[in-house]
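Hey, can you fold this one?
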Amino acid sequence: MPVRVLVVDDSALMRQIISRMLREDSELQVVGTAYDGQNALEKIERLRPDVITLDVAMPNMDGLECLRRIMDAHPLPVIMVSYLTLAGATHTIKALELGAVDFVTKNTTHDPAENLVMQNELIQKVKVAATIRISELRPVVTPFAPPAAFDDAPSPAKFNQLEVMVIGCSTGGPRALHQLIPNLPAGFPVGLIIAQHMPRDFTRVFAQRLNDLSQLEVREAQTGDLVQPGRVLIAPSGRQTTVRRDGEGRLTVAVSEAPNLLYKPSIDHLLHSVAATCGHRVLGVILTGMGLDGAQGLRELRNLGARTIAEAEESCVVYGMPRAAAELGGVEFVESLPQVLPRVERILREYR
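Sure. Predicted structure:
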C-alpha cells in the first residue's frame, strides 16, 4: 500500500510543486491538499492520511497551531516545509518541539538541480515519517528533574582522563536534545559539542533556544571557541567543525567550509578530529537519526578506549545512526533517552 500524504500550503503553486514531487515516487500517494490549517484539520478527518507535509506561515490558522491540534486530537507524522529564513528557522524549531518529525526547506530558485535535491529529500523524509511510531511524536516537555547524583559530580580538575563529551544526531535529534541539555546542571564538569544535521543558519536559532532553556551556556560554535566545562557548542550547519589544541594545549574548535562532505556538519568528521586530538579521553553519544553518519567515528573512539553511548531503538524517532554505530561495534552502552543522562552520570563518577 502506498503512503497516503496530505499536502498543506497556502500557496497554490507550492501545493502543486510539492504534490508533483511526491507523485514521482510510486510508493507515495497524494490523497489531497489543503490551503490552511483549518482546511487541513477538516481533510485529515475525511482523508485519513499517513503523513502530512505542513507549511509554517499560513493565514487563518498557521502551521504551528495546526500542528498543536493535530498532536492533541489525532497524532500523525508531520513534515514541516518552510523557507530558509530566520523566521522560518524559528518556527521550524518550535514545530519540532511540538512533535513534528522533520522538516524540508523550500527551494526559492528555479534551478532544476536544486529542485531535484528538494524532491529527493522530501520523498525520503516522508517515507521515513510513515514508519515512525506515533508514541514517539509527543511534544517535548522540559525540563524533568535531573539525576540527583549530578549535584555531587566531581570537579573539572579531576577529569584528567575525560576532556569532552560529543553528541551526534539527525532526525528526531532536536526533540531529544531539548530533553537532555536543559537537564544538565550548571556545574557539568566537561565541555560538550553537538553535531545536529540542519540547514545552514538553523543551528544558530536552535542554539539560542537551548540556551534559553538551559543552565549551561549554549551557543553556535565559532573558530577559536574553547571547549570547557559549563559550555555547550553547537556545530554550525552548512560547515564542518574540527577539534584541535591551541598553543597552550587547550581544546578549541575550528569552523570551515572544508572538507566538502555529504553532511554539514559531519558527525564522523567531528568525531575523527576528537579522536585524533583527545584519544580515549572522550564520551561520545549517538542519538536518533537517519543514515550512517557518526558510526565510523564512534567506532574509532571506542577502539581507542573512549566511552560511548547509543540511544536505544525504543526511544528513537529513527533508529538509523544508533543501529549503524552498534553494528560497527562502536557502542559501549545502549540506553533509552530517559536513561542517557543517568548513564552519563555513572560514567563521570568513574573518573573521580
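The chain has two domains: 3-136, 148-349. Let me know if you want another pass with a different chain boundary.
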